[in-house]
């Protein structure tokens, strides 16, 4: 496998976290998204939206979208349950992550850390309020079980963790259940921290 990724992306980080937890070897190419290298005709042919991560699979095919990559890589491992009902719940959490976690915590964090929050103050505040609702939902769900789909971690946990564990960068406090869940993930053998910082090209200078 060959992963095309950007170190500052939590979407990319969650894929590299799964690969590390599974001990899977892979090649990696850093994509300078703020220099526009993800918008070349060749890259867009492989990732229609120009997004990273992008996986060149062992069979020669190209797979974009972080959660699709998580499912592809996890199949046949402990991070993809065998029960169809559990698989459905994992898929539901992956969709929730892309609707209520990544575009909420992820966007607000990106705006704040790169100097974009002031220019969209109203929307930033809306996302902050929404992020609090998301974190409260996660804390409630994790009150009754150690992981999102039961007793064992799945790709649902890795997907949601990718951005949820960064909420502190927004000054948000994780609930006790979410905090314990984060510590459980971080205690998994092979765990790696991430994502990396945004590169200088991502930063908007004041004035």
Helices and strands in order:
Elements (H helix, E strand, L loop, with lengths): L1 E4 L4 H13 L4 E4 L10 H6 L7 E3 L5 E3 L1 H9 L9 H30 L7 H21 L13 H10 L11 H11 L21
Parallel strand pairs: 1-2
Antiparallel strand pairs: 1-3, 3-4
Task: Kindly describe this structure.
- Strands 2-1-3-4 form a four-stranded mixed beta sheet, covered by helices on one side.
- 33% of the residues are buried.
- The model has no long low-confidence stretch (mean pLDDT 97).
- It has helices at residues 10-22, 41-46, 66-74, 84-113, 121-141, 155-164, 176-186; strands at 2-5, 27-30, 54-56, 62-64.
- It has two domains: 2-78 and 195-199, Glutaredoxin, CATH 3.40.30.10; 84-186, Glutathione S-transferase Yfyf (Class Pi), Chain A, domain 2 (Up-down Bundle), CATH 1.20.1050.10.
- Helices cover 48% and strands 7% of the residues.
- It is α+β, with helices and mostly antiparallel strands.
């Amino acid at each position: 496998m060959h992963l095309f990724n950007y170190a500052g992306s939590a979407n990319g980080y969650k894929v590299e976290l799964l690969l590390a937890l599974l001990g899977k070897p892979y090649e990696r190419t850093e994509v300078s998204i703020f220099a526009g290298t993800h918008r070349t005709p060749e890259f867009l042919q492989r990732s229609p939206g120009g997004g990273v991560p992008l996986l060149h699979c062992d069979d020669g095919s190209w797979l974009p979208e972080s959660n699709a990559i998580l499912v592809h890589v996890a199949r046949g491992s402990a991070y993809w349950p065998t029960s169809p009902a559990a698989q459905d719940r994992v898929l539901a959490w992956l969709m929730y992550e892309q609707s209520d976690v990544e575009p909420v915590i992820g966007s607000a964090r990106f705006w704040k850390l790169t100097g974009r929050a002031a220019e969209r103050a109203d929307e930033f505040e809306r996302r902050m309020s929404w992020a609090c609702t998301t974190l409260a939902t996660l804390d409630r769900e994790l009150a009754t079980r150690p992981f999102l789909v039961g007793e064992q971690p799945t790709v649902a946990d890795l997907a949601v963790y990718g951005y949820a564990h960064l909420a502190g960068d927004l000054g948000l406090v994780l609930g006790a259940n979410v905090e314990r869940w984060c510590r459980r993930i971080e205690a998994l053998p092979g765990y790696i921290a991430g994502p990396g910082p945004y590169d200088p090209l991502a930063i908007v200078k004041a004035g």
